[in-house]
């Protein structure tokens, strides 16, 4: 484990290294387990219909892919037909999730489902105890803190807005998702740096995914790989190559002022 000592003006975090509850273990299973009931409850709402419309359009674009589930239009012929359409949406969403798709249609529906779950208290973002004190300290030292995650910006804000530490959105200066580009492509990190007005070599990126770390390094960004319970294991080469931390308290970030 190495202590990171670099002159920085910006600190960019993957959304997950600071959180016990992650998308794979909690949020994605929530979608799979609750999507049918959510659709039945919210079907007549304009927002839900927009979500279904986007999924239907995506299904048409995916028509040449193996296993794609088309979503038929409703003709208003009663409850039995409605159930068939809802089941088609459920099957399409689960198919996309099984393939780890990042389509806007899928992300939008997921974000709306998570919003409802957070608002009703069914889901909370559980924060590792070192996270909030560390980020407050970094901000006091003049750091700017940004989130970059494959989860949508809306999903990120829900995660941090309904955390076990309360609403901690004020700790972050901005949010990015894959609309800026894939996390495994170096150009994405250059775009973010340009967007926030910060040179890439003045940014530290914290992640738990080596492929993301490699892409960030290619963009001349400093990187540390965060080891947390439940994270995928690293190879011996990755352990020896990357700077590793298991707590945000292991970072020494000198003042940017």
From TrEMBL:
It comes from Nothocercus nigrocapillus. Keywords: Amino-acid biosynthesis, Cytoplasm, Hydrolase, Magnesium, Metal-binding, Methionine biosynthesis, Nucleus. Pfam families: Hydrolase. The gene is Enoph1. The lineage of its organism: Eukaryota, Metazoa, Chordata, Craniata, Vertebrata. This is ENOPH phosphatase. One of its GO terms (molecular function) is acireductone synthase activity. GO terms for biological process: L-methionine salvage from methylthioadenosine.
